[in-house]
Amino acid sequence: MAAVSVAAEWQLLHNRYYRKPELYAMRWAIRSGVGVDLRRHRVACAPFGGPIAAIRDDSKIVQLHAESARRRLRVFSSAGGLLASTPWDRPGGRLVGMAWSDAHVLACIVQDGTVYRYDVRTEPVGAQFSMGKECFEESVAECVFWGGGVVCRTEENKLFCVPDLSEPRPCRLADAGLSEAPRCMAVIEPQYTMSGNVEVLLGVAAEDGVLMVDEEGVQRFGTGIGRVTKMAVSGNGRMLAAFTDDGRLLVITTDFSRIMFEYNCETTLPPEQMAWCGMDSVLLYWEESLLMVGPHGDPVHYQYDEPIVLISECDGVRILSNSSMELLQRVPDSTVSIFQIGSTEPAALLYDALEHFDRRSAKADENLRLIRSSLPEAVEACIDAAGHEYDTSRQRTLLRAASYGQAFCSQFQRDHFQEMCKTLRVLNAVRDPEIGIPLSIQQYKLLTPSVLIGRLVNAHQHLLALRISEHLNMNPEVVIMHWACAKIAASSASNDADLLDILLDKLKLCKGISYAAIAAHADNSGRRKLAAMLVDHEPRSSKQVPLLLSIGEDETTFMKASESGDTDLVYLVLFHVWQKKSPLEFLGMIHAKPLVRDLFITYARCYKHEFLKDFFLSISQLHDVAYLLLKESWEIGNNLSASKGSGSPLQGPRIRVIEQAHKLFSETKEHAFESKAAEEHAKLLKVQHELEVSTKQAIFVDSSISDTICTCIVLGNHRAATRVKQDFKVSEKRWYWLKSSALATIRDWDALEKFSKEKRPPTGFKPFVEACINAGEKAEALKYIPKLTDPREKAEAFDRIGMAREAADAAAEAKDGELLSRFKLSFPQNVAATLDAIRDRFPFQGV
């Protein structure tokens, strides 16, 4: 009897059954003051059981009854529950069209081409935008939406398109050259076209067939089918249902290669609405009459005494009226196999066996024996049928039948049964009239659970979204974060401490949640203190520190960045505070923070010398200022390439900088050496500057004292060399080395000899020997080698100028066998024999 009652609700279209269960009695029909009369309102219904937007139609003259003359945009659930409303006071003329995008953003287009966008809470989404100057000048006459975009037609029959409403970039399509408005317009979505661009189909009043318009051009298709007055494109973009002016319904492939079927509707009046019911049939609606036409057999008629709106779904059509929401869909094969009158399918026998089992009838066992070999298929069919049912008692009965069959089917995979139970719990929860999302199982699978949870969150159904997330083992972070942000926005009267406790109690349910993101929302909502309290619970410094900066908690930010040990974060805070604070405040802030201070000093040494000097002065570290001055003087010296002439004007500032460094070093006893060095450096630069002026040669500055003396001697300025020696207290030994080397460089051997005879050299004659040998003058070196007092030095000198015998004699005099052995290795064979003879004559140590 149950099967008979179920099948009695079906209608047969050729060999396929269709059903039209009522999903909801519309709640707006029950509650006074919020009712929606579809005759007087313009409505936009989102697919996948989405919300309904309604606004009084300003193109009709209607009686206001008790309502206000001011229009309101209202958003309802599919069950008719009011979700939100807002006054409609937008300029731009009459509302031409509105529709929901895939992201549940309501787009409303007015006559001047302005597009306004709202969410399900009627809050504006993004800035309004215009379809373009021409739409503004010519006015929008008609628009057609699809999942993510819209096409508009102006009063001058020009077409404009926005492919993506989330990133609006209006573009004009090719000019169709129409002199009068088309009778109908439809679009093929970009995802179903070869070009990847939207294609607009126009039914022209005076011409046969259909015009296809895109960005590239205009093409005519379907010549011979007649004048089209109404069109609807199938959900997969492959078929077009077209109603002609002679009353025929044609289903054509969208490439117009063939007519799939044709039906004579016996009326030439175009339908008010036309929609696809899945991929199997087409619905046509005239006032009080709904006709469902399939490829074969007689159509099915439905009568309505109130206006309706057809809402295409992937597996059927939702029918909205003033009083109810229905779903017209093809009956699934699994359901037909069970409930069809007289069915002997295994699933029907299994369902019947459960009834006999409940009545304690032995016939239950007979039914099971009959389907023993097909029991897994019967169980699967019962599970599938349960998923397609909206009635919870029927779901329960079908699942019980499946469970009953499983008990006698050991090889059946039970995962499918468990998954179906989980899925039905979710679907039944969102189908509740308080929620009002009448998803079918096919729609749920296409939509995916994550998208469903996102839509529940946007509708502020946070508790249900959280329960579903937990039920499906999904991360509840998105739900809890949205709830927290909504709670902050709705709790303007609560104090920060109490609100923080409420938030933390829920936020702790999700590990790893971003407290920083919620704190940022609190800051944007004007709750800066609450934001600071929230961000303190954020464990990730990379998210915590930037937010603390934005809310102005500089001291806390420095502490958190330092504790993280991340120098990049410390520098981020450092630069941010540096730009915001005055120099005095900034320097005082970083002084007591060792890591911050050290990083600042490291950076400032490279790029901000003056600022770093101010910092060191503020903390009385004068020696560090002096070091910076020395570095600055060096940089000034490097800039001499800009002015290479003698008497460079840059030397004066450089000398003054070094003198300042000397004064700062002299302030502390610990830096006496640095003070003396800076003093002498400045003194040397002055001398070198004077020498460059007198010689007109820029060769002295930045050379050492030794090089300065040598250069003076090379230039013949012995008086200047002597003055440098005296001024800088150059020792006699060093003086002899420098002067002998310089005289050898200019090969003034007479002067060198004279210099050696002035007085007994304090260094001996070794500097003279070295100078001559280095200059390659063996003859000159022989003047001084015999005067060397150290036999070993004398032997090595003779060796360097190639005088082996003399070197051997000197080595023998020094009684150095090791030296003699080394000479033997470097001298020729005949000389080596002589060395052996010398070694045999003298007893050497170490040989």
Automatic annotation (TrEMBL):
UniProt xrefs under Pfam families: Vps16_C, Vps16_N
Vps16 C-terminal domain location: 513-826
Gene3D superfamilies assigned to the protein according to its UniProt record, in alphabetical order: Vps16, C-terminal region
Main localization of the protein described in the UniProt heading: membrane
Membrane topology: Peripheral membrane protein
Entry keywords, A to Z: Membrane, Vacuole
Keyword Cell inner membrane (UniProt): no
All copies of domain Vps16 N-terminal, residue ranges: 8-417
One GO biological process term: intracellular protein transport
Localization per Swiss-Prot or TrEMBL: Vacuole membrane
GO molecular function: actin binding
GO cellular component: endosome; HOPS complex; lysosomal membrane
Function: Required for vacuole biogenesis and vacuole enlargment in dividing and expanding cells. Involved in the docking or fusion of prevacuolar vesicles.
Family: Belongs to the VPS16 family.
Protein name listed in UniProt: Protein VACUOLELESS1
Lineage: Eukaryota, Viridiplantae, Streptophyta, Embryophyta, Tracheophyta
